[in-house]
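Reply to dn_fold:

You asked what the input looked like. This is it:
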Amino acid sequence: MINNLNQYIDQTILKADAKIQEIETLIAEAKTYKFKAVCINPYYVKYCAEKLKNTKIKICTVIGFPLGANATTTKVFETKTAIANGANEIDVVINIGALKDQETNYVLQELQAIRQVCSKDIILKVIIETALLTEQEKIIACKLVSEAKADFIKTSTGFVANGGATVADVKLLKQHIAKNIAIKASGGIRTQAQALAMIAAGATRIGTSNGINIVTNQVKNSNSY
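and this is what came back:
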């Protein structure tokens, strides 16, 4: 058992119909359990940043979410706005179609443009959506994320059916990502056993809406992120 398991958790609400009451609950949970971060849609960044300003809890938001197919200029604008509103962690979805079309220069340049607007204090995580990629495409994604000098590679958005994190994917990413780049496992992680398996495979962050269940080792049936 890991003593500080709470510090691996990005407690998450990214569903489209999330209401402010649910965000309030998320904030309270993060404070109570001292999670590493809350991960919310950009609309709630300013609100969460204000509510958590006197804590060590990070404000994480998603960019180009969940499809990754926005124009680069849109993603860059989203990133700048999120940072201005108080985000200090950025989870951007890679352009999945461009990657599959082997438009690697486009993908790299887009990631570099986003990296450029993130200061050293801003953590950049790149979501590659492993469920939609072949093994070779995952390896190429690792190379591009490494070249872009991101801080993390992240497995999944959690929005692809049956497409969450797997231990096999975390091990593959660990093998091919640059040594200074960490791994965030996300999507379908609901139990402590699952979280610990991801960490043992090489993940140092867990994206989940089930953080309480994970740190308290409770089992709950859920279809959430």
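The chain is about 40% helix and 15% strand.
Hope that clears it up.
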